[in-house]
Amino acid sequence: GRAVLVEGAAAGAAWSALAELPAAHAADVRVRVGARSHDLPDLLAALELDRAAAGVAVRAALGLAYVSLANVTDGAALLPTLGRWQRLAAARGGYVVVEAAPLALASRAALPFGSATGSAAALGRSLVQSWDPRGTINQGRVPWT
Asked: Which of 22, 96, 127, 128 is most deeply buried (CB count within 10 A of its CB)?
């Protein structure tokens, strides 16, 4: 790849688009995919992201990919796809978790926000309740709320 210098009006447009990016994807469900760096390309190919993803950002050196799923109206409808992705990732020593979802999403609580279960999840809920009783910090990102 080559570096391209963007100046003038084109630079202003690029910065404006970048500033608006978070708001443009606020309604998306964001999924984090993790695997060993050398396994990540094959895992992403196996997930068939071109069918589902509105966008994918990859941090190859870290073994992470962030997948943005747009037009999701019901979290329960995602469960079969996410379950398949989790099985494919686990077979490669990786993982798939939902990192963020709109608060108003139907069946949001059913989404796999993290790997914490049982006492670890109870501890997480307790900490969130202690430190943020009104639920104002990281809305839509904390798996135990």
From this structure: 96
